[in-house]
Records
---
Amino acid sequence: MAFIKTAFPGLYIFEPTVYEDSRGYFFESYNEKAFTAEGIEIRFVQDNQAKSSYGVIRGLHYQLDPHAQTKLIRVLSGTILDIAVDIRKGSPTYGKVFSLELSAENKKQALIPKGFAHGYSVLSETAEVFYKCDNFYHKGSEGGISYSDPDLSIDWKIPADKAIISEKDGNYPSLVNCKNNFIFEI
C-alpha cells in the first residue's frame, strides 16, 4: 500500500497494491494496520455510497466541529474529478484547491482530513462513489461553499450547459462568507 503525501498538510493519496491475474483482481481498500503504520490513526464509523450521472457536481460540503469528518474517498465505477479545499484558518494551504481524478480503473483513493470542503464532478456516463467517514452525519453541522466561487476558480471539467447542481449546492456562499470554525493545528 502506497501513501502519497500532498502539499496540503494531512491530505493523502492512497494507492492500494492491486493483485491481478486471469480471474480479475484483488486489493485491500482499507487496512487499519497499514494506515496506523503511516501515522494515520482514524476510526471510521460510517460508510456512504452515491451514484450520479455525467455532469453532476456535488459539493463543496463539510461539517463544522465538533462533528467534522475525515473522509476516505474511492470510486467503485466510472470516473470523477475529486476536489478538496483547505478551509483551516492559519493553514499554509488555506483557500487552495486540490484536485485529483479518481476512477474505478486507477483505484486511487483520497484521504480528506477534517477542515476541508469536499466535492466532485462526474466525468463518466455514471459513477458510483464510496467513502468512509470518521464521524456520523449531523444535519445541524452542515456547511458548504459555492462550487462556482470565483476566488477558488475550480475547473470541474464539465461544460456549464451540462452541469447538474442541486438547489442546496447552488445556494452555498463563497469561502469568505461561509460558516467556518476550523483552525489549523500542526
---
Amino acid sequence: MNGSSRPRTIGLFTVAGIRVEIDLSWLAIFALILWSLSAGYFPGAYPGHRTSAYWVVGLAATLLFFGSVLIHELSHAAVGNLKGGKVDRITLFIFGGMAHLSAEPKSAEDEILIAGVGPLTSLGLALVFWVVHGMVAAIAAASLWAAVFRYLAFINLALALFNLLPGFPLDGGRLFRAILWKRSGDMDKATARAADWGASLAWGMMAFGALEIFGGALVGGLWLILIGLFLRSAAISEYQGTVMGHLLQHVSVGDIMIRDPVTIGSDTPVSDAIEHYFLKYGYGGFPVVEGGRTIGTLTLSQVRHCPPQERERRRACEIMRGLDPGIVIDSRASAMDAIRKMNAANIGRLLVMDGDRLSGLITRTGVMRFMEIKAQLEAPFEPPRESGQARGCGLQNPSGQ
C-alpha cells in the first residue's frame, strides 16, 4: 500500500521520452479560459452564431492554446537535452508550463540557446496561425474558425513577448542572466541579480494590477496581481535552487547520509511503531526490514492515514510503501539528485541502497541542515565584537564550559 500524500500533478502522456503532466491548478485556468472564450470573447466579437458553435470553437482554441504552450516547453526540452541538461518532465500549470532541467546550463552560451528557443518557437507558431487564419478567412462559412486562428496568432505573439520580459525565471530573465554570466563569469552573482530583476518586475505587475482594480478592471487587475505573486515566488525559488546547487556541488549522498538508521520490523503493529519509534525518536519515517532485508519505508503520513481503531491489528508491512525505484538512491549519486528525486516523489527521505543492502538513509531535513552549516562556514569571516576586554583562546575560561 502506498500511503504517500496525494500527488499534485496528473500524468498525461510521454513525448520522446519526456513525461507531460498537468498541475492540478491547470484545471482551473483551463476552465476559466474555455468559459471566457466560449461565453465572452467569441460571442461578443463575432455575434450571430449558435451557442453550441461558440463552445466548440472555444474548446478548440483552448486546447490549441495549451498545445502551443506545450510546444514552447518542448522546444526548451529539446535544446536542453541536446546541451546535456537532461529534461524528462514538463509540467503545465496555472500560469503556463515548465520544462524541468536536471541541472543548470553548463555555460552562458547554452543558457542563451535553451532560453531563447522558447520565444522563437512562440513567434513561429504565431506566424503559422496567422497564415492559417488568412487561408480560412477566405471561406465565408468558416468566419468563426478564422477567428480561432486569429486569436491563436495573437496569443502566441503575446506569449513570446511576455516571456521576453527581463524577469527571472522568465525566458527573458534567463537571457539576461546569461548575458551577466558571460560578462562576469560568476553564475551565482548573475542569478542573484536576475532574480532581483524578476522580483522587481513582479512588484511592478502587482502595483499595476492594484491600479487596474481601482480603475474598475477587477478581473484584469487580480490576474496581474496573481501573475506578479507567482513570478516573485518563482524568482526566489529559482535563486534558492541555484544556491543549493552551489552548496551541494561535489557532495554525494554517501557523504551526508545517515548510516545505520533505525529500522522497523515488518510485523511490528502500527500502534507499537507509533509508541516505540515515531514518538521515541521523533523521526518522520523509518526503513522497514524483514529477515534482514529492507522491503520498504513507513512514514508518519502512512501511519496517520491508518484509522486509530485498526492500529493494534495492522502491521507495518501492510501500510508501508514497498521498495521501488522512486524511494531508492545510490550512495554515489549527488546530494542534489537526491533533493530532486524527493521533490519529484513528494517524499522526505530516500533509502540509500548498495545492491540489496541498506547503506543508509538521506532526508530532506538532513540535506537542509548540511547546507545551512556549510553556508555559515563559507560566509565571509567577521571578527567577534569587543566587549570591554580582549578575549584569548581559552584564557578567560580555562574550564571550557
